[in-house]
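Hi P.,

Sorry for the delay on this. The queue was packed all week, but I finally got your sequence through. Input first:
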Amino acid sequence: MDKIVAVDPGRDKCGLAVLDGQGEIILHKIIAAEKLEEAVRELWQREQPDRLVIGDGTTSRQAIARLKKILPELTVETVDEYRTTDEAKLLYWTLNPPAGLKKFLPVTMLTPPGPVDDLAAVVLGRRFLRRK
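Then the structure:
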């Protein structure tokens, strides 16, 4: 498997990530939920991934239906979303190690400065890759 696109679907915003076959991050970003189709179509054309991975949460069925409408050939795999936000927060601190006095605190006590939906998509993609 060369690349996957991973989506953490949400009502207002979605996390998107592109990972290589080893789970290394190629791209990650947060988009408005209404821009999902446009963003996935662009990534699909540019990155030429093998498949799309999406979290199985509340809005996933709607998101899958919307994406299948614009990309009927899409191969979609759902992944369990349980505790992805917690894992995404830990991943944030791995990618952005705390500085100053914060580096003396356990990262489980720290809060990232913004949303981590993009990193939740990374977590979902890596979960999928571990299953394969």
